[in-house]
Design a protein that fits this description.
Blueprint (H helix, E strand, L loop, with lengths): L3 E5 L8 E5 L19 E6 L5 H15 L3 E2 L3 E4 L5 E5 L1 E4 H5 L3 H4 L2 H22 L7 E11 L17 H5 L4 E6 L7 E3 L2 E4 L4 E4 L6 E5 L6 E3 L2 E4 L1 E9 L12
Parallel strand pairs: 1-12, 4-6
Antiparallel strand pairs: 2-3, 3-13, 5-8, 6-7, 8-16, 9-13, 9-16, 10-15, 11-12, 11-14
């Protein structure tokens, strides 16, 4: 992997750490939105947006939802917005598949906490990048992920390939990850790695830690394979284009 620097250790408790990097040209091939499209690019890590106790509550939402399905391979997703849930080698729509039983699984409080957490992350990103929070829109896919060491069965299970969010999804301008479990305590491997020309910069997951970054090629990244245990996280993504915006999930 060449030289690797740790941007955030699991044992660190970071109020705010931000590294500015030059923006790539990815944003030029998309419609620009004044006051939102990144002009300042970079990556940040904070352990001060979400508490560990809140992260545990959010993880329980993920565990309950994912217990209804789960991939045959090592990576399972649950998208509360679209209802997409990994099941075997495919996806089902959670809301159609389980119908009214969904009220036995999730509560209004779960969804209120989810909304609150999303808003706080959105506000912090806006603050750090000097944009207005109201000019950012939640976009898809925004989802829970559960990763373990089970061998991949389909390409959906291969989460470890390097990629650029803006190239992969188009609508993404700002990406965030909220970690819901602890590196070396709950799982081994599974670190988040920014692949820079000179070296790799890693973020070690810790429950309640938020990692956020501009979504262009300036932040090429990958996740290491999980070697043991289970890694939970939620990816929350934002766009500047209102046409690509989605609402918060409702029960």
């Amino acid at each position: 992997d060449g030289v690797t620097e740790v941007l955030a250790h699991r044992s660190d408790s970071l109020r705010d750490k931000f590294v500015e990097i030059p923006c790539s040209e990815d944003y030029d091939s998309h419609r620009r939105f004044e006051g939102c499209t990144p002009r300042r690019c970079g990556r940040g890590v904070s352990d001060a947006i979400i508490t560990r106790e809140e992260a545990e509550r959010i993880r329980r939402i993920a565990e309950r939802g994912l217990s209804l399905g789960g991939s045959d391979g090592g990576a399972s997703i649950l998208d509360l917005h679209s209802g997409a849930l990994s099941l075997g080698k495919h996806f089902v729509n959670l809301y159609r598949y389980f119908g009214d039983k969904i009220h036995d699984i999730f509560t209004e409080e779960d969804f209120a906490l989810y909304r609150d957490v999303r808003q706080r992350i959105q506000q912090r990103i806006a603050q750090v990048f000097g944009i207005s929070s109201s000019s950012m829109y939640l976009t898809k896919p925004t989802f829970f992920s559960r990763m373990n060491s089970t061998e991949a069965k389909t390409t959906h299970d291969e989460y470890w390939h390097p990629h650029v969010d803006k190239v992969t999804y188009g609508s993404f301008d700002y990406t965030s990850l909220l970690y819901l479990s602890d590196y070396t305590q709950d799982f081994g491997g599974g670190r988040f790695v920014f692949l820079d020309a000179d070296s790799n910069k890693t973020v070690e997951p810790r429950a309640g830690r938020v990692s956020f970054f501009t979504s262009g090629s300036e932040n090429l990244h990958r996740v290491e394979k999980v070697h043991w245990g289970t890694r939970f996280a939620i990816t929350i993504s934002f766009t500047c284009n209102p046409e690509h915006g989605i609402g918060d999930p409702v029960l």
